[in-house]
Write a structure and sequence with these properties.
- This protein is mostly helical and 68 residues long.
- The protein has one domain.
- The chain has helices at residues 2-6, 9-17, 24-37, 42-63.
- Helix 3 crosses helix 4.
- The protein is globular.
- It starts with a helix and ends in a 5-residue tail after the last helix.
- Pfam families: DUF6525.
Length: 68
């Protein structure tokens, strides 16, 4: 729970509505990479997380496996 509490508020809000069971650690890493690619634009980085999650969901639908 402490890892979750250390996340920035906007990332905690994103995680609360996420369709996949992201761990605070994995979402923090993915967000950090997205933030670097988006040159610090937090909104664009969160949108990138949305796209990443959608790709994982689509892949799990194709294979019939649960994405994690």
């Amino acid at each position: 729970m402490a890892d979750y509490d250390r996340l920035p508020a906007d990332l905690r809000a994103w995680l609360a509505q996420a369709a996949l069971p992201w761990s605070p650690r994995s979402v923090s890493r993915a967000f950090g990479r997205a933030l670097a690619r988006r040159r610090g634009d937090r909104t664009a980085a969160l949108a990138e997380l949305d796209r990443l999650q959608e790709r994982r969901l689509a892949a799990s639908r194709l294979t019939g496996r649960t994405a994690s």
